[in-house]
Design goal:
Elements: E1 11-15, H1 44-54, E2 61-65, H2 75-83, E3 90-95, H3 100-110, E4 114-118, H4 124-131, H5 139-149, E5 154-160, H6 169-178, E6 181-187, H7 205-212, E7 218-221, E8 232-236, E9 242-246, E10 259-262, E11 267-269, E12 277-279, H8 281-285, H9 291-299, H10 318-321
Parallel strand pairs: 1-2, 1-10, 2-3, 3-4, 4-5, 5-6, 6-9
Antiparallel strand pairs: 7-8, 8-9, 10-11, 11-12
Helix pairs in contact: 1-2, 3-5
The structure holds S-adenosylmethionine (SAM) and iron/sulfur cluster.
The site of S-adenosylmethionine has 20 residues, from strand 3, strand 5 and helix 10.
Length: 323
């Protein structure tokens, strides 16, 4: 399946819910967002049907995201259904990790291949301040649970915010010398309800790399196996894990973008930014074939996103578009 610029689309990110048990400062207001009513959210059978229709067109890899996917009841059943679809080779999960210690084994047994855990601090008081919820999240316990369950590689996503957690980049990087984990530092993006965060909080990736280089020499690395993401990886000599940077603000990945997104209410979005989307849910509920809609979506996938040109306005939170 190729788009109008010859990029092949084999990777679908599926938002299973717009709700979350956290309220990360960069993602959601404390009071939450206007949640989608239940009947507007795709049922698991509907998500599975969309993937079943996309697989013969070349779809190979899936990521379950949100909102927080692990708070939707019986996520394990969805993983099982998706894993059974011919052509689907790889299923990943993006999670804040709170429920991983209790769910990792079941998810692995259902067929989950790998996981990205979001973690912005290693200090409990800061986790609480950034997530604005006290759920006892402990990154080490969450990542170890995934590792023990065999869900690998494990990637850890850290949104770096100046004056809030940027003094921890060295501690996060040091984890990769002790564990086979892949820590990725993400530049803060100006989307959603960033009432408390501004451009002054963005720490450019070059600065992040020079700060962690105080730990030792960093070498360019191919990165973890089975990755689709837009990260550039580095490794300390002899380290089992790697360090990466994801730089939406200072570089774009659009020319190699291989992904599309399915929102919780059944819209296929071909770019994280901007409003390129096609509604699948209504046709699906009427029993109509989806292929013409897939083709329309792909024909409209933009060449690059509009964030860098600052032609933005009213961008929605990542939790609403399946970040
Ligand atoms: N709840 C899950 C989680 O936190 O991993 C999945 C959804 S979350 C929207 C996906 C990713 O988007 C997380 O790694 C989060 O840190 C990132 N994210 C959300 N808002 C962001 C922002 N304004 N800038 C940079 N990254 C952001
Ligand atoms: Fe929830 Fe993930 Fe957004 Fe944090 S980043 S509020 S965990 S959806």
């Amino acid at each position: 399946m190729l788009d109008q610029f010859g990029r092949s689309i084999e990777y679908l990110r599926i938002s299973v819910t717009d709700r979350c048990n956290f309220r990360c400062q960069y993602c959601m207001p404390v009071e939450g967002l206007p949640w989608l009513p239940k009947q507007e959210i795709l049922r698991y059978e509907e998500i599975t049907e969309i993937v079943r229709q996309l697989a013969p067109l070349g779809l190979r890899r899936l990521r379950l995201t949100g909102g927080e996917p692990t708070i939707r009841p019986d996520l394990v059943a969805l993983v099982q259904q998706l894993k059974a679809i011919d052509g689907i080779e790889d299923i990943a999960l993006s999670t804040n990790g709170v429920k991983l210690p209790q769910m990792a084994r079941e998810l692995a047994a259902a067929g989950l291949d790998r996981v990205n855990i979001s973690a912005d601090s290693l200090r409990p008081d800061r986790v609480k301040a950034i997530a604005r919820r006290d759920l006892g999240f402990d990154l080490i316990a969450a990542a170890k649970a995934a590792q023990d369950a065999g869900i690998t590689p494990i990637k850890i996503n850290v949104v770096v915010m100046r004056g809030i957690n940027d003094d921890e980049v060295v501690d996060f990087a040091a984890l990769t010398r002790d564990y086979p984990w892949h820590v990725r530092f993400i530049e803060l993006m100006p989307v959603g309800e960033l009432r408390e965060l501004t451009w002054d909080h963005v720490v450019p990736s070059a600065e992040i790399l020079s700060r962690i280089a105080t730990l030792g020499e960093l070498r360019a690395d191919a990165g973890p196996p089975r990755g689709n993401g837009p990260a550039v990886y580095h490794r300390f000599a002899g380290a089992p894990g790697s360090v990466g940077v994801i730089t939406p603000m200072t570089h774009t990945y659009c020319s190699t973008c291989n992904r599309v997104r399915l929102t919780a209410d059944g819209r296929l979005r071909t770019c994280l930014f901007g409003d390129h989307e096609v509604v699948l849910r209504d046709a699906l509920r009427r029993g109509e074939p989806l292929r013409p809609l897939f083709e329309k979506a792909l024909a409209e996938k933009p060449k690059e996103h509009e964030l860098l040109q600052m032609r933005v306005g009213g961008l929605r939170a990542l939790s609403q578009v399946g970040g």
